[in-house]
Amino acid sequence: MTRNDAVVDHAEDMFDSLTIGRRIRAGRLARGMSLQALAERLGKAPSQVSVIENGRREIKVGELQQIARILEVSFDDLLRPEPPSKRAALEIALERAQRGTLYNSLALPELPVRKSLSDEAIETILKLHDELRRLHEERAATPEEARRANGQLRREQSQRGNYYPELERAARELLEAIGHRGGPISQRATAELAAHLGFTLHYVADLPHSTRSITDAEHHRIYLPLRPHATDPRSTVLQALAAHVLGKREPVDFGDLLRQRVETNYLAGAILIPEQGAVEFLTAAKDERALSVEDLRDEFSVSYEAAAHRFSNLATEHLGIPVHFIKVHPSGAILKAYQNDDVQFPSDALGTIEGQVVCRWWSARQVFGSEDRMSPYYQYTDKPAGTYWCTSRIESGSAGEFSISVGTRFADAKWFRGRDTQRRLSSTCPDPSCCREPADELSSRWRETAWPSARLNASLLAAMPNGTYTGVDRVAVLEFLDRHAPSA
């Protein structure tokens, strides 16, 4: 690679269309050149050049080099990160604010940045915007680090199709070590895997409430509850073993905690539903246009949620189908979510999805009204990003009921069983008129007489305990280990 090639590659990585656009405009005005003149030299329409100067589209390296020659400035000068003037800096800041999730959540019209808009007016708007952001962040001060880490992790999952080849390889090696020949992994095989890794399993009645399991690495013991929190007792054992295999220690921050949870759950899922057997099963189902999460569940004797998670791991990588996964509380609040099919989950002003209320017309909420809890629930939904097909099912856990949904774009629904459903609804969320605002007649009828008593979540006012990122009662854990440690 030549030095010029390296400069171009670096330039593509560092492009900031807003700053570059303002530097182009400043260079043009410094030469006394009109927009029309620059457009003619570039062989473009003035409107196309205006879009570039306003940072409305990214500019290609070749275009930027051509503009630099016309304006008689260096290529590097146009790439300088600082705005060309104080006014340009204010305009850039305002443009960025308007493109952010906070501004968009306010449902305000776009404010054109014109010469008539004074510097003082822009500064006032920016200060108000910054204060709103500060208040939002202050309101969510305790979980903010976790929210940011979760958002970053979710973006990574989406970019890689929720597929982790290194974890698939680790699962394959573990299964080969115990001679697993395919199909569901039994509880006996799970115990054999623990023994292979040097651990004994101990089921106790006094496991601290804040834990799912406790691993004693010194004595190679894994302590598990007599009454497992999970519906599948294998999953708790496999998650503990996965943490050992991956060399996980107590998390040092929220990001570490969330990544550990994702990786250990993934490895456990890859052991419960081995990649090779699952891909063969799903490929055959796709060939017959009969893909079904229920069938994957039954084939490998796992919960519907585990099958749906695993399907999201394999669908894009091996079947070429982008999908989304969503777990929803009966109230409509999102508990977990993943997508790489461009479906638009609701989010707050800071981009957080978990805890937001999903549209009542989505299948994730419509399924709660279905009287048939045995059969799969299928639905097409016309959404702002397009039409999506979804299959949903209600599951129960220690915290009550929740729905699990797997969906995909209309074009990929042809591969799934249930694609012939006639159930089709429309959602315009986040438009409030879709389902978040009551009808006028209802508002008028009950405005003065309705007063609901809210159920206050215990976690609403509670901060994470000092000194921990997990919420685990460390004193209880250490006392437990000391109480159960084998005598010398």
UniProtKB/TrEMBL annotation:
Q: Which InterPro entries match?
A: Cro/C1-type_HTH, IrrE_HExxH, Lambda_DNA-bd_dom_sf, TransReg_Diox_bact_type
Give the matching PROSITE patterns.
HTH_CROC1
* This protein's record includes keyword Nucleotide-binding: no
Residue ranges annotated for the HTH cro/C1-type domain, each copy included: 24-78
Signal peptide extent: none
Keyword annotations for this protein, in alphabetical order, are: DNA-binding
Residue span of region Disordered: 138-159
Transport as a keyword of this entry, yes or no, is: no
Composition bias, Basic and acidic residues: 138-158
Q: Name one GO cellular component term.
A: cytosol
The entry lists its GO molecular-function terms as: DNA binding; DNA-binding transcription factor activity
- Give the family this protein belongs to, as stated in its UniProt record: Belongs to the short-chain fatty acyl-CoA assimilation regulator (ScfR) family.
Spell out the protein name for this chain.
Answer: XRE family transcriptional regulator
Q: Which organism is it from?
A: Gulosibacter macacae
Q: What is the lineage of its organism?
A: Bacteria, Bacillati, Actinomycetota, Actinomycetes, Micrococcales
